[in-house]
Amino acid sequence: MQSNEITKENINKLVVTFYTKVLKDEKISPFFIEKLGADMKSEIWQKHITLLTNFWFTISFGRGEYNGSPFAPHMQISGLDRESFERWLKLFFEALDKIYVEDIALKFKERASIIASNFMRNLSI
Ligand code: HEM
Hints:
Blueprint: H1 8-24, H2 29-36, H3 43-61, H4 82-99, H5 102-122
Helix pairs in contact: 1-3, 1-4, 4-5
The chain binds protoporphyrin IX containing FE.
């Protein structure tokens, strides 16, 4: 059953579902494995999952525990191209469709697409 409300618990489920897909993806898994390793159960991955859960919670509710600089780490990743961002969005959309009813999924998709466009513009790709 897809959720028709946004909670911290289901955002966490979204983030875990998304990264499970990412780590199986030939094109974009290497970027994540290089920085965070291949084991989602590791401490570094658990921290990343909590960080991203807080990030999406803060975006959704306009308040929350994320107060970082979302773009900054992406400047340190070499080889990022438009195709990688398209794949990132495709996997994120698939995860959203699994977790949320259509109108909630759509709102996240709009936010993610805008952020991805901003990142690509900042990276000049
Ligand atoms: C192909 C596209 C992308 C790749 C390969 C990628 C990869 C990564 C990696 C490896 C990190 C961890 C960096 C580190 O800890 O050193 C990271 C952090 C992060 N990413 Fe991405 N990312 C992509 C796109 C996006 C998009 C589109 C968003 C948002 C919609 C996003 C949001 C974030 C956030 C919020 C962080 C944490 C920033 C912080 O440290 O505060 N990423 N990303």
